[in-house]
Design goal:
Elements lengths: L1 H23 L4 H12 L14 H18 L2 H6 L1 H25 L4 H12 L3 H11 L5 H30 L4 H25 L1 H10 L3 H21 L4 H12 L5 H25 L3 H6 L1 H23 L6 H10 L5 H12 L5 H23 L1 H9 L21 E4 L3 H12 L4 E5 L2 H9 L4 E3 L5 H6 L7 E4 L4 H14 L4 E6 L5 H7 L3 E4 H16 L4 H13 L26 E6 L16 H4 L2 E7 L2 E3 L13 E6 L1 H13 L2
Helix pairs in contact: 1-2, 2-13, 3-11, 3-12, 3-13, 5-6, 5-8, 5-15, 6-8, 6-17, 7-8, 7-18, 8-9, 8-16, 8-17, 9-12, 11-12, 15-16, 15-18, 16-19, 17-18, 25-26
Pfam family, one: Na_H_Exchanger
GO cellular component, one term: plasma membrane
Organism: Alteromonas portus
């Protein structure tokens, strides 16, 4: 046990040093993990003489990676980009796989191995391209969106390969069509079962887990769901990664998506790093040394052919030449999923270790060249086309522009909702973040842009586009949590202002020291507004009142401190009976009010007010009294809690 522990410490030390070194020379961490694996492998330091011992743990990393990919799989986004995804993406995958399958087949390699080799070489690196594009700020321009469309189809194409490899290993050369047919039948059954579970069971599970407000339970449940789904598909003889992908896809449209992604990321990154370390350990240096010329020649031939084939595929939708060539340059490397497929194929005996090592060697070299190619993709495309180009970074393929110059509201309670209504009245875009599952469900049903998640987590803020936001507003009165939000915001951007609301000003200095631009203590601000009204009625000119208010805020409420306490000093903010709730009622097909006009329903007798009506995803702000209620309408009503509850029952059940 002591030796194993020491080996793990040595491996972690090598990995940390490698990642730090590669980061300094602007190379992706994947290459650092591969390098660490080579150093620690049996051919050099021999930290682990048998890398296959870590195979199961590394495979869990693949499970989490596919789970995250499933979370990113958005059906609406896919439909919005369908001409690119299923046009250019499908064309690129078919063309490239066919070309790179024919070469090894011509050299006498078996059909099974040739297909796997063709598929691995056709894939590109989603992780490197997306990360590099994000850092360069070009993720939403036209040519990058073309590349993203191809990457999306490639990510989907990984799943059939993962299904087919174990079956190809069993059938050999007997019948590839039979193997794929069997995989298809099993896949249809498992997908149908998991989709059923995902529709009826998982939302309820996560709703109940979220209500406990226990972070550890939420994380553990996320990991358990991913592993259970992977174990189910593995039981049916399919890949564990397929089950994880389906589980992620089922949860990808839920309100918990961003929090799930944030929770799984640390485990995914660590275990995926371990996976790439094991890939590096399996790299045969003798193959690299003996075939160095062939590998280098193969890399350049591969990259040139992939650039040409991406451009050819882009002609299917008549894409601009500059965009097509630029996308090809971005995608000419071998992807991280190629290593996954190659490792799985080697494990099942479809590929030899030498063939797998050749793919890994070519992948490492092509990935190392990717950052430079990404930075110069447009320049290279211009030289190929031999014409000038005007940058049009605002043109996107998609259904909506990403938010910018918006307000992020952390906490969507009464204060957050009041701010949101005022922002909406002024036409200012906002996105809210809240951890209350019921509140998020209610507000999302009413059409509010609310994300379920912990605002103090970096990934949640990134999903709210904090780097391009105008303001981050913290509305909850939890000082330590507010400081975490400020810290995470400052690690992402220094240009976005942060405003914090507190009940009292006891923590004013500490919040400013944490990086807040403005702290608004509720009690002092309420007193200040009262004072301004008093001064106005006392005849003080408004200009002097505004000057006094500004000075008081600038002096951090110096004159508002200190009062004579008494027995009734404690401030009461009201009772529940004084609250007014807003509630979204989703009208099912069997609701008793279906087919009735709004005027025929006595809302005044129920003592609730209509705030809005949503139909087919569109908001009707002031619905006409003659409007007929239809199935699947969302009626937004307001009133005291018990009255809202009675009104909902009457609308749905008629009693």
């Amino acid at each position: 046990m002591g030796t194993s522990f020491l080996n793990i410490v040595i491996l972690m030390f090598i990995s940390v040093c490698a990642v730090a070194l590669f980061k300094r020379i602007h190379l992706p961490p994947i290459l650092a993990y591969l390098f660490a694996g080579v150093i620690a492998g049996p051919q050099l330091l021999s930290v682990f003489a048998h890398p296959e011992e870590m195979h199961l743990l590394a495979e869990v990393g693949i499970v989490f990676l596919l789970f995250s990919l499933g979370l990113e799989f958005s059906l609406p986004k896919l439909l919005a980009m369908r001409s690119l995804v299923f046009g250019v993406g499908l064309g690129q995958m078919v063309f490239t796989t066919a070309v790179f399958t024919s070469v090894p087949l011509f050299l006498g390699i078996s059909m099974s191995a040739s297909i796997i080799i063709g598929g691995t070489l056709a894939l590109s690196s989603t992780a490197i391209v997306i990360k590099q594009a994000t850092e360069m700020g070009i993720l939403n321009n036209r040519r990058t969106q073309l590349a993203v469309s191809i990457l999306l189809f490639q990510d989907l194409a990984v799943v059939p390969f993962l299904i087919a490899i174990p079956l190809l290993a069993q059938t050999g050369e007997v019948s590839i069509a039979l193997a794929l047919g069997e995989a298809l039948l099993k896949g249809v059954f498992v997908i149908a079962f998991l989709m059923s579970v995902g529709k009826w069971l998982l939302p309820w599970v996560f709703r109940e887990i979220a209500r406990t407000r226990t972070d550890e339970l939420f994380v553990l449940t996320t990991i358990l769901i991913a592993l259970l789904a992977g174990g189910l598909t593995y039981y049916f003889g399919l890949s564990m990664a397929l089950g994880a992908f389906l589980a992620g896809m089922m949860l990808g449209e839920s309100q918990y998506k961003y929090q799930l992604e944030a929770d799984i990321r640390p485990f995914r990154d660590i275990l995926m790093g371990l996976f790439f370390v094991t890939v590096g350990m399996q790299l045969e240096l003798t193959v690299l040394w003996n075939s160095l010329f062939e590998i280098i020649f193969g890399v350049f031939a591969l990259m040139i052919v992939k650039v040409i084939l991406v451009r050819a595929a882009s002609l299917l939708v008549k894409t601009d030449a500059i965009d097509g060539w630029s996308a090809g340059v971005k995608l000419c490397q071998i992807g991280e999923f190629s290593f996954v497929i190659a490792a799985l194929a080697t494990t099942h005996g479809v590929l030899t270790s030498e063939q797998s090592s050749l793919i890994v060697c070519m992948g490492v070299i092509s990935m190392a060249l990717t950052p430079w190619l990404m930075n110069n993709s447009v320049t290279i495309a211009k030289r190929i086309v031999n014409k000038d180009i005007s940058f049009d970074d605002g043109a996107t393929f998609g259904d909506a522009e990403p938010l910018s110059n918006h307000v992020i509201i952390c906490g969507f309670g009464r204060v957050g909702q009041s701010v949101a209504r005022m922002l909406k009245m002024e036409g200012i875009h906002f996105v809210a973040i809240d951890m209350d599952p019921v509140r998020v469900h209610e507000s999302r049903n009413a059409g509010e842009p609310v994300i379920f998640g912990d605002a103090s987590q970096k990934d949640i803020l990134l999903n709210a586009n904090v780097e391009s936001a105008k303001l981050v507003l913290v509305t909850f009165d939890q000082v330590e949590k507010a400081k975490q939000v400020i810290t995470q915001t400052r690690t992402i951007t220094n240009t976005t202002d942060v405003m914090v609301r507190t009940k009292r000003d006891y923590q004013l200095e500490s919040l400013y020291n944490a990086g807040a631009n403005q702290v608004v203590p509720e009690l002092q601000e309420g007193s200040l507004m009262l004072v301004s009204q008093v001064l106005h009625y006392a005849g003080v000119p408004m200009s002097r009142i505004l000057k006094r208010v500004r000075a008081e805020r600038k002096g951090r409420y110096d004159h508002m401190h200190g009062f004579y306490p008494g027995e009734t000093t404690e401030i009461t903010y009201g009772t529940e009976d004084k609250l007014e709730f807003i509630h979204a009622v989703v009208l099912s097909e069997h609701a008793s009010c279906i087919g009735k006009a709004i005027k025929d329903i006595d809302f005044s007798r129920m003592r609730v007010a209509i705030k809005g009506l949503r139909r087919d995803g569109n908001e009707v702000k002031d619905p006409d009294e003659d409007a007929i209620l239809q199935a699947h309408d969302v009626l937004v009503i307001a009133g005291k809690p018990r009255r809202v509850e009675r009104a909902e029952r009457k609308l749905l059940e008629g009693s």
